[in-house]
Every structure is written in structure tokens, then in C-alpha cells.
Write a structure and sequence with these properties.
Elements (H helix, E strand, L loop, with lengths): L2 E5 L3 H13 L3 E5 L2 H10 L4 E5 L7 H4 L8 E5 L4 H9 L4 E4 L4 H17 L5 E4 L2 E4 L4 E4 L2 E3 L3 H12 L5 E2 H8 L8 H19 L4 E4 L3 E4 L3
Parallel strand pairs: 1-2, 1-3, 3-4, 4-5
Antiparallel strand pairs: 6-7, 7-8, 8-9, 10-12, 11-12
Helix pairs in contact: 6-8
Length: 221
């Protein structure tokens, strides 16, 4: 039985979701604040998190980066495209605007869980000839190990997790800030340059491209 953590301070919505999801065969955990959700995640390992953004204390945007290796669907009244894009790039599996259709939510939950099951608990990410080991924090290019700093690895991981998208500089800095707070915008270009040089030294291929005024992306050809 799959377990879903519902994080929403709206009692009515939470109760409605719990009733419907229980009827669908899911085991349910409940949290009413961001802090409570993180406390639960310290001891429990649900298969999926439903996360409201407008939470008391620590809000959903602050909680999301702290949820590791668990698909998270955002439930929010915020309907702006920029809100959706930023949260999806920050690690959300999906984003549903309130009020939502329950059949659509159930379908999106099914898809998110299916993707999670087929990811083979992704311990590595591959892009062309590059493979990064998420457990050992190792980088290989054409089976040749490449030594990267902690900051370089964090940046490369974000780019490889979104291979067909331009990742904004602000998004990169925000997502690596927890593990590598020393990286600021003025030094980001230096880190990117070092990554490109190290990867290129193996087989002469430039794997990363800058998109002027926006950020960086993996080069697809």
C-alpha cells in the first residue's frame, strides 16, 4: 500500500483528501505546517507528498527543497506561470492549482507514483556520455572519472536533472544554497567555466551552454 503525506493547514481540504485517498487504497499521513511535515519525514518515508504552499511558519517553498527523493505535488491557489515554473524547476513533480478536480488529482498522483517506481530509485543520472553518481557524488565522462568540487557537482546535477531546459541563474543559486552557501552570482560563472573545462578535457566535447541573460543548459548536440 502506497503512503501519501498530506501537508495542508486547511482542515476541510485535508479531511476531504484523506477520505478520498483512503477510499482509493492509499495510506495517509497528515501534517498541518511545514515544520510538522519535516518532522514526519525524519521518521517516515512516504511514497508521495501533497504540499500546500500557504502554510503557517515554514511555507511550502521553504519545505520543498528539504524533501529528498520523494515525488512532491504542489497544491496551491497561486496560478501564475512563473510560480509553477520555479517550483517545478525546484524539484516538484507536479503542480495543481486550487480549486482542483479530484479525478485530475488522482490521475496526477498515479502518474507521479508510476514515474517514481520506474526510476529504479535513481542513484545516477546520465546525459550523453556523462554519468553522475548521486550517492558517491562521482562524475564520469566516457567512463573516465572527473574530479569535481562539491559546488561543481551540485550545479552539474541540477543541469542534468533538467537537460532540455534553461535553468535560470537564480534557480541554480537557490537550489544549491543549502549545501553550498558560498556560491553567489559573481562566482557562478567561474564554477560553470570550471565544470565545462573539466568535462571537455576528457573528449573535447562542450556539454554546457550559456543562454544570455537567463542561465545555463546542457548542450543537446
Amino acid at each position: 500500500m502506497k503512503t501519501i503525506l498530506i501537508t495542508d493547514d486547511d482542515i476541510h481540504i485535508g479531511n476531504m483528501l484523506e477520505e478520498i485517498l483512503t477510499r482509493e487504497g492509499y495510506n495517509i499521513l497528515r501534517a498541518y505546517s511545514g515544520t510538522e511535515a519535516l518532522m514526519i519525514l525524519e521518521n517516515k518515508n512516504p511514497d508521495l507528498v501533497l504540499l500546500d504552499l500557504m502554510l503557517p511558519g515554514m511555507n511550502g517553498e521553504e519545505v520543498l527543497p528539504k524533501i529528498k527523493n520523494i515525488p512532491t505535488i504542489i497544491l496551491s491557489a497561486k496560478a501564475g506561470i512563473s510560480d509553477k515554473v520555479n517550483l517545478l524547476l525546484s524539484g516538484a513533480a507536479d503542480y495543481i492549482t486550487k480549486p482542483f478536480d479530484i479525478d485530475e488529482l488522482l490521475a496526477r498522483i498515479t502518474v507521479a507514483l508510476r514515474k517514481s517506481d520506474t526510476s529504479v530509485s535513481s542513484e545516477s543520472i546520465t546525459f550523453r556520455e556523462i554519468t553522475i553518481d548521486l550517492v558517491a557524488h562521482g562524475v564520469m565522462v566516457s567512463d573516465v572519472p572527473v574530479k569535481c568540487t562539491k559546488t561543481e557537482f551540485a550545479i552539474l546535477k541540477i543541469l542534468m536533472q533538467n537537460p532540455s531546459q534553461v535553468v535560470a541563474k537564480s534557480v541554480i543559486l537557490d537550489r544549491i544554497s543549502i549545501d553550498t552557501p558560498d556560491c553567489v552570482e559573481s562566482s557562478l560563472k567561474v564554477h560553470i567555466s570550471n565544470i565545462r573545462r573539466k568535462l571537455k578535457e576528457v573528449n573535447g566535447t562542450d556539454y554546457i551552454e550559456a543562454v544570455w541573460g537567463i542561465g545555463f543548459k546542457m548542450r543537446e548536440d
